[in-house]
């Protein structure tokens, strides 16, 4: 997609006609607090004839200002303790839509700096919200053309950094494209190809595992999920490996497993009664991680190494399909009984995590993550919020807490769930024939602890369980369930959000 082009603007004169912009967008909780007299006078004067000014987004005729347009989008309710920085994002999206509808091509965005710390990233959050508002579906762009809505968006401030925001948005565009696109255009093979093209000429190391024998040997659980897809060449599974390594000394290493189930029929435990619609979005975890790597490749942060494995597979159904009751040995050598073929995401992740575990053994200060649209339970539990479930090492290092704090600042809020001993009792194979059971045979949304206990499965099936607090090589592992946060609006076909890309990037570079 045509890149959204943010520009840092340091000179207040940019608000005037003839200085490169054609609309002034003001996002503020208090017009008087802006400190720009021309805008304050115009807005207060406008209030005399239009009581909406300061209450809802309004366009004012503003001779002398850029494009003669002043759009004021108020941020109300900032003193409410329950509110967060997303208030600014919402107001910015409304202002941007007014500018778009009014025919502006180069808007200048001004966001007031609120005194409360929780709004510290208000300008960056507002800018990213504009990116979210502007994104259009890949299928639509490919059919109807891909012209940028705006030539550029100026950011009048000192607190933001356009280069960082442009890189974040480039990653988010890639993530949304990968997550949101229909299952034939973005099959596993096409997803892998889309990544390879997006990373061309970057500093990233990229490889794609395509060979069936290699997939079945190295990713046995993932290959079981894809077993009935091998017969259709364009539906065959892929594993994409991507690595970013900063020049110079490395002080922290990060490892990401991304769930990329490009279509989830449920497999032999097929989704019924309309439950399959929207299941092309079951690749949001791999998509967000892919986007994160793009952002990293553009900003090249120092001191970090980031390794990602994306498991791309179609959970198809057919005579070759894997079925419930089968016992399959994971890459880590753990014999897994399949409890339900619709709990396929954890199978994909377990093999990816096992490979990352081996790489992490020799890495400096490693942190591992799995990112996935994993469960209906997390949606039932937390609505549209991301949930993280940590192992003991991550909890000791306050990884979840840090992610939560960063998420609050950047408008990507996160809930921290605690892994409990009960979660391990849910993955016992009652027959004793297998080492563990992948899941119960009911939808997670009606299962108690339905989004927490998969983390227990992931720890065991990937071999990460052997890297707890008392182990010789402890490894911090955090499972991130984005089933509720990967898209916004319509539950089936809403816009992908690219969450938790911004929070993970901020965590890595903090
Ligand atoms: Zn499923």
TrEMBL record:
Keywords: Aminopeptidase, Hydrolase, Manganese, Protease. Residues 340-347 form the Cytosol aminopeptidase domain. Signal peptide: none annotated. It comes from the Bacteria. CDD domains: Peptidase_M17 (cd00433). Gene3D superfamilies: Zn peptidases. It holds the Pfam family Peptidase_M17. The keyword Nucleotide-binding does not apply. InterPro entries: Leucine_aapep/pepB, Peptidase_M17_C. PANTHER family: DIPEPTIDASE B, ISOFORM A (PTHR11963:SF48), LEUCINE AMINOPEPTIDASE-RELATED (PTHR11963). Belongs to the peptidase M17 family. This is Peptidase M17. It comes from Shewanella colwelliana.
């Amino acid at each position: 997609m045509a890149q959204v082009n943010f520009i840092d603007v340091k000179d207040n004169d940019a608000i005037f006609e003839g200085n490169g912009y054609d609309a002034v967008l003001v996002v503020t909780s208090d017009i008087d607090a802006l400190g720009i007299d021309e805008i304050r006078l115009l807005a207060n004067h406008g209030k005399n004839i239009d009581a909406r000014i300061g209450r809802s987004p309004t366009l004012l005729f503003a001779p002398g200002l850029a494009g003669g347009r002043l759009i004021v989008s108020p941020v109300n309710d900032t003193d409410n303790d329950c509110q967060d920085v997303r208030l600014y994002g919402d107001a910015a999206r409304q202002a941007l839509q007014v500018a778009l509808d009014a025919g502006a091509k180069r808007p200048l965005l001004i966001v007031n700096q609120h005194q409360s710390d929780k709004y510290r990233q208000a300008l960056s959050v507002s800018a990213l919200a504009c990116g979210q508002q502007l994104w259009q579906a890949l299928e639509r762009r490919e059919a109807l053309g891909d012209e940028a809505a705006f030539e550029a968006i100026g950011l009048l401030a000192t607190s933001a950094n356009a280069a960082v925001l442009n890189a974040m948005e480039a990653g988010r565009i890639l993530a949304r494209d990968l997550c949101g696109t229909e299952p034939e255009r973005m099959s596993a093979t096409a997803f892998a190809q889309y990544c390879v093209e997006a990373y061309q000429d970057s500093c990233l190391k990229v490889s794609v595992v395509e060979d069936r024998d290699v997939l079945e040997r190295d990713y046995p659980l993932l290959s079981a999920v894809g077993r009935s897809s091998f017969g259709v060449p364009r539906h065959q599974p892929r594993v994409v490996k991507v690595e970013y390594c900063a020049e110079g000394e490395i002080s922290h290493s990060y490892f990401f497993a991304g769930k990329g189930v490009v279509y989830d029929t449920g497999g032999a435990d097929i989704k019924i009664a309309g439950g399959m619609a929207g299941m092309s979005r079951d690749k949001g975890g791999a998509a967000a991680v892919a986007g994160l790597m793009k952002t990293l490749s553009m900003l090249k942060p120092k001191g970090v190494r980031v390794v990602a494995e994306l498991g791309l597979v179609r959970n198809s159904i057919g005579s070759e399909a894997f079925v419930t009751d089968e016992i399959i040995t994971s890459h880590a050598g753990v014999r897994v009984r399949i409890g339900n073929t619709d709990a396929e995401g954890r199978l994909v992740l377990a093999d990816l995590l096992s490979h990352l575990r081996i790489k992490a053994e020799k890495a400096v200060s490693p942190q591992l993550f799995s990112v996935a649209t994993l469960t209906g339970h997390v949606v039932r539990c937390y609505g549209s919020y991301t949930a993280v479930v940590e192992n003991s090492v991550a909890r000791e290092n306050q990884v979840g807490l840090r992610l939560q704090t960063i998420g609050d600042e950047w408008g990507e809020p996160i809930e921290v769930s605690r892994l409990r001993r009960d979660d391990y009792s849910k993955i016992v194979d009652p027959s004793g024939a297998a080492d563990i059971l992948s899941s119960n045979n009911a939808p997670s949304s009606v299962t108690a602890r339905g989004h927490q206990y998969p983390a227990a499965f992931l720890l065991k099936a990937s071999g990460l369980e052997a890297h707890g607090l008392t182990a010789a090589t402890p490894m911090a592992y955090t499972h991130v369930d984005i089933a509720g946060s990967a898209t916004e609006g319509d539950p089936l076909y809403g816009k992908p959000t690219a969450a938790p890309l911004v929070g993970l990037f901020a965590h890595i570079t903090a």
